[in-house]
Amino acid sequence: MSHSSTEVPVSGARPAPPRREGARPAERLPVILTVEPDADYALLDSGAGEKLERYGPLTVRRPENQAIWSKRLPDAAWEAADAIFTGDTDEEGLGRWRFPKVPLGETWPLQHRGLSYLGRFTSYRHTGVFPEQAGHWAFVTDAISAAKRPVRVLNLFGYTGLASLLAARAGAEVTHVDASKKAILWARENQELAGLNEAPIRWICEDAVRYAEREVKRGSRYDIVLLDPPRFGRGPKGEVWQLLDDLPYLLDLCRDLLSERPLALILTAYSIRSSFYSLQALMTETLRGRGGTVESGELVIREAGAEARCLSTSLFSRWIP
Predict the structure, then answer these.
(1) Is the distance from CB of 236 to CB of 179 less than 8 angstroms?
(2) Would the pTM count as exceeding 0.90?
């Protein structure tokens, strides 16, 4: 999952994908995938442009543009956070972390369903994990287990690797692609911490579009393709990625990468001025002739406690054969 503006070098105007023949897949929408609070993670409160979360043992306070309602908890609960992000409130804005109680290091140990990984305080206010993705993680691991055969997974814009590690732990052979060397290093750290050094994971530091183009030419095929692109990215050589401009081309490449017995193609989109209806239309057009069902909606996190509200974090669309 790459969400920093330096992680996605891509270049040039994309050719328009061909119009696919055949019937569109069946449609199911809206689908709301909700993450509930548990021992690993909880959204404690939100409001007034912020969110208060618990990641394992630590409480974290940071900006959240979607939280336009009032906070439920008293100010004292917010002031008691272990880590508070201060700085630009934009999704890609730079800032720094303040630690009111005791100085904390850059990382701290976390778990998701028994898989160990590192949380990380980044200058882009992220923590190295996107807990709202837990619905997709569960779907993917269940599909791998149920397949009862070798499963190949391609994780584009893989970020710090939780989806890749969970898929590998479930028994899949995984190819993880991210254009950020730093993100790949973080993912490798998480692999070691999770005790999965021997797992069949290929870590590829490259532009997702170029990698997908080459894989199509090579005739490579995958049973599950995960696609989690940022809204905007700029590479080290000035290459530019614009999600709404470039996504149709990349999604069409991903269709060509699906195996003869695929399990899923999953797309998540953050921080864009769009609708899940747009993703649904794009996905159903791209998957014409492949049958199956496309379901689209939102990923949301339910607050802990009484009168809990749901915080919408992103849009998604996924094709299931």
Answers:
(1) no
(2) yes
